[in-house]
Structure formats: structure tokens, C-alpha cells
TrEMBL record:
InterPro entries: AAA+_ATPase, ABC_Ni/Peptide_Import, ABC_transporter-like_ATP-bd, ABC_transporter-like_CS, Oligopep_ABC_C, P-loop_NTPase. This is ABC transporter ATP-binding protein. It comes from Jiangella asiatica. The lineage of its organism: Bacteria, Bacillati, Actinomycetota, Actinomycetes, Jiangellales. GO terms for biological process: peptide transport. Belongs to the ABC transporter superfamily. The keyword Ribonucleoprotein does not apply. CDD domains: ABC_NikE_OppD_transporters. It is a peripheral membrane protein. Its main location: membrane. The keyword Acyltransferase does not apply.
Amino acid sequence: MALLEVSDLRTEFTGKNGTVAAVDGVSFTVSRGEALGLVGESGCGKSVTALSLLRLLPASARIAGGSIRLDGRDLLALGEREIRRIRGREVAMIFQDPMTSLNPIMPVGRQIAELLECKLHLSRRRARLRVIELLEMVGIPSPTTRVDAFAHQLSGGMRQRIVIAMALSCQPKLIIADEPTTALDVTIQAQILSLLRALASDLGTALILITHDLGVVAGMTQRIHVMYGGRIVEKATTQELFANPRMPYTWGLLRSLPRLDHPRADRLTPIDGAPPDLADGAAGCRFEPRCGHRQEICGASEPGLVSAPRHTIAEDGHEVRCWATQPDGWLADATTTAGQP
Ligand SMILES: Nc1ncnc2c1ncn2[C@@H]1O[C@H](COP(=O)(O)OP(=O)(O)OP(=O)(O)O)[C@@H](O)[C@H]1O
């Protein structure tokens, strides 16, 4: 049994202009200790998917369908007290801006200690000692001093290390990291990502890494799911996705990545057009208006997420939502468009 099983999840926002499904029919699993990347442009539904998992949605949103199972337990059926027990203790979240997770008027160490006292029932003294160990583990220099620092006295990278220590403090089974390094300098980003990867893998913690940047998940995850317009449009192992991407949207994401073999910045090609307006309820493939390979059927009806044809891929389990690259599609054999600006 997978650690996390998300099935046909649908999360809707209701506002003045009616109801839109920000997450629409999303299904995926995460195994124990596995790292999964959830990738796509801004607004494609990555964060809403993550917030749905822990039922941390804003008041204007609701989970309208599907199921979320953690270790076999249906998280959507739990009461508020029970889901609160799961947060932090079994599933922890790391957000983009560490300041959203840290209390500015409480020493950082005390914030982690409170979690340990409340969730693991450690005494105040034992919690403080454990916090110092955790700060050491995430590479905070002089942890016995820094334990009493306030968030504003630390750099952005140090704050994110504190947030990682907080996420790991109760030894959760799963960490969801939503753009954990976007707010940091590039050099610090790499340090924080490798720290997160090393700690999660040492401790056997599963990880869902959410990012708009395929480059970030390349070295961090075993599998990648690409999202577009509230849907998953491609699923594959990380190696397979980079070797044999099948969906034109994924090709676009890959073309917009800097590459060492194409050092000139002008070789980067952003994807033309804007993400879809989820309110317009178009019948076809959601990427159709921006796709350079579209044909009539693409605007008329939406393809399902199906296994890619075996002769064009190296691995089973590779799924794609695209008329063009399905077995009898007009790009059924095209595999080289990827990353070839
Ligand atoms: N507070 C909100 N009110 C109304 N609609 C929202 C709200 N938050 C998100 N949405 C809708 O959900 C969609 C998905 O948003 P989400 O934040 O999950 O995207 P994302 O892929 O995580 O992008 P980003 O990286 O910018 O956070 C948005 O395009 C928008 O339509």
C-alpha cells in the first residue's frame, strides 16, 4: 500500500464569477521514502493540491470530490481534531517564505520546542535539547546560541533551515515542500535543496516537492508529475521524463530550462501564451490554445491521461494526456522535440 493515495481530487473556489475547479481530477500516489516532484507554471494548481492534502484551504475553497488516503486512512473523513493531529506529526509542510511559518516574536528554538512538547509530549528541558540537535542537523552554526534567536536575526537561508528543522522535528512520514527555495539566492537554493534531499532520504521521509522549475526536481525526485490547468498532464520517472517527454507542454517546460550545452541565455524559449482561464470551461485539451502541434480534435475534446505507447518510451508507468502523442496521434513517434530549441 502506498503511503499517500490521492484519487480523483477536485478542489473548487467559489467567488463572484461562479465556481472554478483549481484542481480537477488529480490522482497520484507517494510511496514510503519516495520523493515526488509536482511541476508546472504558476496557477496550475500545485499549491491548491498541497493545501487540499492537509485540508488547509482558504474559506472560499472546498474539496468537492475524490479521496485522500494516508496510510489507508481517509483524511477527508477525519474530524478537525484528528486532522490537526496529522499536521506536523505525520505530514509536515514547508512553504516558500519561511516568515509565513515562523512567529516573529518568539525565539525560533522555542517554536520548535513547543511543537515537540505539544505533539510528542516531551518535557521542556528535553525539547530544548532535541531542538539543539535538530538545529545542528540542519547545519545551523552555534546552535546553542541560535536556539534563542528571533527569525529577523537570521538570514533567509538560515530561516529556511529552521523551517526544515521544524518540519522534521516530529519525524513525519511525509514532507510537502512548496517552492521551498524560490525566495532565496541561487547559491543558497542549491544548499537548501541538497540539505532537504539528504535529510529526507537519511530519515526515510517521503517528500512532495512542488516547483515551477523542472531543473529543481531533476536531481531531487524519483518521479515527476507535470500539472497544467488543474490537471496532471504527464507522469513519469524523473529519468524517463527528461529522456522521453511526451506532452508538448512538458517540451515547453524543458525548452525554458537553462542548459549547460546551450550556454547563451537567448537559447531559452519561454512557452508562448498564458495559462488557461479555469472559469471558461473549454471542452478541449487545456493546453490547446498554446500548443504548436494542435489539430482539430485538440480543441473539441480533452484527451484522457493514458499510458504512453510502449514503442516511444523506455519505461512502463509513463502516462500522458495528449492526442498528438497517443498511439495513433500525429506525433506518436516524436520524442526528440524535447529540449531541442
Ligand atoms: N485564494 C484564491 N481565490 C480564488 N482562486 C484561487 C485562490 N488561490 C488559488 N486560486 C485558483 O487556483 C488556481 C491554482 O492556484 P495554485 O496556487 O494552486 O497554483 P500554483 O500552481 O501553486 O501556482 P503558484 O506557484 O503561483 O502558487 C489559480 O489559478 C486560481 O484560479
